[in-house]
């Protein structure tokens, strides 16, 4: 109605009015309407550009924010801060640090707020992901004004490295400090519960989400199913995935399939495996996992039939590959590859490891599953 009155009186073309309208639409999350005003404007100033970049970053559309940022005819500290904040809010901390460096190169000096957003959250996240948990915690404790993004970074770092109970305790500290958890917070906390075997805690946290105004999404249901699956409660996990209000992804069923394999539950595993194959008929890994389950319980004919079906459909299993950064360069290792410049030394080391594993006291898995004859 307000916009309609502005158009009626013919003042929409005034820059201050147009910027206010854009800010109004951005505040309501109506980015299409705001962008339409932006694109129609014959005259734009820094406020116009910064408004749109900030809105895109806060709504998770980082690429759109980046596109506008790169097209800006001029930038000020607010422009750089808005783009950096967008990266941080969406977990792209390395990009935030890179942009911070670019800002310094451009000659702009960051203010205290910009430094807090970048160095506070990005460094905590970096050290936590690298496994330097004590360093990350020291940095985290030294930051006085903690927002939900910083809490999420620290909780996620603890969860990633197996400190599930510490992650859960930090989650409770977050609530005691008056910071409301968001959707990302619950993903990290539920993941921590899954990897630490805290089943009842995880279920309780999942059920408490709506108390904080957070509606469980597909990732939260997936975490809950993972919590139950890892604990061997695969029937309950199957029910969660089957009855969730949205369609589960293949990755969710795959995690449940792996849990069935771990806990040797052929009943649920067979159902889930066949469902996975119907979802991804050209993914060879799905056939192999089900074939392995059959072989583990002595159902050799079923195992061979699955391998034959895999061959008939031309499904391929992705070749195993890993990579590591060393002295600034990326080294990649592929199963069966002999082209690497250190392949001789690598295979010699693998032979040494194999010999060491055959020493007394080392438990080995001699399962011949992967060599199963499918002819």
TrEMBL record:
One of its GO terms (biological process) is RNA modification. The keyword Repeat applies. PPR repeats lie at residues 45-75, 76-110, 147-181, 182-216. One of its GO terms (molecular function) is mRNA binding. Coiled coil: none annotated. It comes from the Eukaryota. Keywords: Repeat. The keyword Repeat applies. NCBIfam families: PPR. Belongs to the PPR family. PCMP-H subfamily. This is DYW domain-containing protein. The lineage of its organism: Eukaryota, Viridiplantae, Streptophyta, Embryophyta, Tracheophyta.
């Amino acid at each position: 109605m307000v916009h309609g009155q502005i158009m009626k009186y013919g003042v929409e073309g005034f820059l201050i009015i147009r910027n206010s309208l854009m800010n109004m639409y951005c505040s309501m999350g109506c980015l299409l309407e705001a962008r339409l005003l932006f694109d129609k404007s014959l005259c734009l100033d820094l406020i116009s550009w910064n408004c749109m970049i900030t809105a895109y970053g806060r709504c998770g559309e980082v690429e759109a924010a980046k596109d506008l940022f790169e097209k800006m005819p001029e930038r000020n500290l607010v422009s750089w801060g808005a783009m950096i904040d967008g990266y941080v809010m969406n977990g792209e901390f390395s990009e935030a640090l890179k942009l911070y460096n670019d800002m310094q190169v451009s000659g702009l000096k960051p203010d205290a707020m910009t430094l807090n957003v970048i160095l506070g959250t990005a460094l905590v996240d970096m050290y936590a992901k690298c496994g330097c948990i004590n360093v990350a915690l020291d940095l985290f404790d030294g930051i006085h004004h903690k927002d939900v993004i910083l809490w999420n970074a620290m909780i996620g770092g603890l969860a990633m490295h197996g400190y599930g109970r510490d992650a859960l305790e930090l989650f409770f500290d977050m609530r005691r400090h008056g910071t409301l958890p968001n959707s990302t917070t619950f993903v990290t906390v539920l993941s921590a519960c899954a990897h630490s075997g805290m089943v009842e805690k995880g279920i309780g946290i999942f059920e408490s989400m709506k108390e904080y105004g957070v509606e469980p999404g597909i990732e939260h249901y997936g975490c809950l199913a993972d919590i139950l699956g890892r604990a061997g409660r695969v029937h309950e996990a199957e029910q969660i995935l089957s009855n969730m209000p949205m369609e589960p992804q293949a990755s969710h069923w795959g995690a449940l399939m792996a849990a069935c394999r771990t806990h040797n539950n052929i009943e649920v595993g067979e159902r889930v495996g066949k469902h996975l194959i119907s979802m991804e008929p050209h993914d060879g890994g799905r056939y192999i996992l089900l074939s392995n389950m059959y072989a583990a319980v002595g159902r050799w004919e079923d195992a061979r039939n699955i391998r034959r079906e895999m061959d008939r459909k031309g499904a391929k299993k992705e070749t195993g590959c890993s990579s590591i950064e060393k002295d600034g360069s990326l080294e990649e290792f592929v199963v069966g590859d002999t082209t690497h410049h250190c392949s001789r030394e690598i295979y010699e080391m693998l032979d040494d490891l194999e010999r060491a594993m055959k020493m007394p006291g080392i438990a080995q898995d001699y399962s011949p599953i992967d060599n199963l004859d499918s002819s």
